[in-house]
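Give me the 3D structure for NAD(P) transhydrogenase subunit alpha part 1.
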Amino acid sequence: MRIGVPRESAEGERRVALVPEVVKKLVAKGHEVLVEAGAGEGALVPDALYAEAGAQIGDPWGAEVVVKVAPPSAAELGRLSRGQTLIGFLNPRGNPEGLAAVAGAGVTAFAMEAIPRISRAQSMDALSSQSNVSGYKSALLGAEHATRFYPMLMTAAGTIPPAKVLVLGIGVAGLQALATARRLGAQTTGYDVRPETAEQVESLGAKWLDLGLEAAGEGGYARELTDEEKAAQQQALTDATKGFDVVITTALVPGRPAPRLVTAEAVEGMKPGSVIVDLAGETGGNCELTEPGQTVVRHHVTIVSPLNLPATMPEHASALYARNLQALIELLADEQTGALAPDFDDEIVTGACVVRDGEVR
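Predicted structure for NAD(P) transhydrogenase subunit alpha part 1 (361 residues):
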C-alpha cells in the first residue's frame, strides 16, 4: 500500500507519525511511503534520513493511507478524497464534528485512541505509549517548579529531607510519574479509586494512600459508596493532599470531564512553594483551580496544567507512536500481498474504526 506522512499543522505539535526506523521496515515489506517535506522537522528528523530509509519526499495526501498524529484541520480534510484511509489520534469522543466531516469526505478512519485495551493490541496502544511520556515529563515539571529538592541531601550545612510526591490516578501516566519521581529521590505515594492498583503502586517502592474507607462488597466486588461516604472520601483526600510538596494528577474518564480530586481547600492548605501538575487539563483538570494550558500561582502554590506533553519530547514520543502505527498497519494489510485489506471481523480493527462507509461508528 501507499502510505502518506503529512507534516503536522496543529499548533505546538512537534511529533511526526512515522520515523525513519519504521519507514525502513515498512518499505522492506513492500509498502511505498511518501513523506511531506519537513514532516520530521519538529522531531529533529531531516528529510535526508527518510530518503535513506527508502521513503519518497513528496505529496502524502494522495496516498491510499494517510497517517497523522493530531486530528486533521479543515484545510487538511479538504485534501482527503473518497476511498482513502486516515489513521491518527482523532478524538472520537470529543470531536464529533470532525468525524462527521471525515465521513462526509468518504474516508475510512481509524482512531488510535479507540484501539481496544486488550493484550493482543498492546503493540498498537498509542494511548499507553504517549502516557508514558506524559508521566515521565510530569515528574520533571514537578521538580522544576518546586522550591524544594526532590532527594534527601546530607550536607555539611545539615540534612534536607526528601520531597513528598503524591500521584493521583494509577494508570500508565501515574505509574511512570511515580517511578520517575522515585528515581529522582522523592518520597512517593500513590492513590486511585480502584483499590486493586495498590499492589502496582507498592511494586514501585511507593506508599499507598489509605483514606480509611472500606468499600468491599459481596463476591469480591466493590460496593457503591453512599453520599456520606463519598463526602468523607473527598474530605479525607483533601486533608491528605495538604501534606505533600508535589501533587501530580492523571485521572481521566473517556468522553467525560475530568474528575475533581484536588479542591480549592486542599490547595489553600498546602505549604507555600508546593506544586500541582495537572495532566487532565484537556478535559477541565483534576484540580479545582486549574487553568488548562497555563501555569498559575494560587495561595502560593504553583498549578501547572500542560497540554499535549508528548509533543514536548518529540523524538522518543514519535518513535513510540510510529511503532504503534506500524503494528496497526501490519494488521490492516493482507499477509500475502501487503495490500490494504482490513478484516472487520477482527475486534481490534472494528474497535479502532470510527468512520466507515460514510458513517460515524
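The CA atoms of residues 79 and 203 lie 49 Å apart. Let me know if you want a second pass.
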